[in-house]
Amino acid sequence: MLPVLAARAEGPTATPGLEPAATPAPGPTGLVTIESDSQKADNATGIITAIGNVRILYPDRRLVATSRQAQYFTKEGRIVLTGEVDVVQEGGNLLRAERVVYLVDSERVLAEPASGQQVFSQLRLQESPVTPAAAKPQ
Question: Which residue segment(s) compose the domain that 97 sits in?
Answer without folding.
Answer: 31-122
